[in-house]
Amino acid sequence: FTPASTGQVSIEPPMLSFPISLVKASQTDVITLVNASQGPVAYTMMLKSVQNNDLILATEPPLSVDIPTGLLPARSRKSIRLTFQPQFAGDFEMLLVCKLNNAHNLVYDSECLVKGRASYPTVCIRDARMVNGDCRPGCDSSQLWQQFSLTELNEALTQPPTVDVQEEKFKFRFIPQPVAAGTQ
Q: If you compute the radius of gyration of the chain from its CA atoms, what whole number of angstroms results?
């Protein structure tokens, strides 16, 4: 038998939004391909950038499909798992395109808008205190804040991490205390 070159194939849902994700973490969701035609249909799942019309096979991050090509029997439904795994921070918007295969070329049939967002975890220091009140007279939170350069550290923590191994290190200034004194 020969797969049909045309058919009525749709993607359910027509739009899919992934919740915010950490960079390089993965999330999965499921779409359903529906073949309403009388014959089997060979399909290929492609990604189309919303910014341009480039088409790529949906097998690599940020969005990959577990079964990018296949045969969809007549009057059937097929669940397909999507994996969103962003490699950098940002907003993502792609069209997942189901193209029908025929002997001559690929023909558009159905699209699903897929959205996602990725970011790095956020860390912020809001307070500095001595444990158990082990503080010499005159030592308060503002002095600790200054001693540990916490304003500069917070500024650095708001920046995206870099791949450079030689990232800036913060030098904490410790004031030595006599032996048997409380911890700093």
A: 27
Query: Mapping DSSP to helix (H, G, I), strand (E, B) and coil, where does residue 16 land?
Result: strand
Contacts of 138 (CB under 8 A, 6+ apart): none
User: pLDDT tens-digit profile of 63-122?
Assistant: 999 999 999 999 999 999 999 999 888 899 999 989 887 655 656 678 899 999 998 877
Please spell the DSSP secondary structure of 116-181, one letter per residue: EEEE-----------GGG---TT--HHHHHHHTTHHHHHHHHTSPP-S-SS-------PPP--TTP
- 156 — phi, psi (to 5°)? -65, -35
Which pTM value belongs to this model?
A: 0.66
pLDDT digits (tens, 9 = 90+) for 11-56: 999 999 999 988 888 999 999 999 988 888 889 898 887 766 666 6
One-letter amino acid at 13 equals: P
What is the secondary structure of 32-96 as a DSSP string?
EEEE-SSS-EEEEEEEEESSS--EEESEETTEEES--EEEE-TTEEEEEEEEE--SSSEEEEEEE
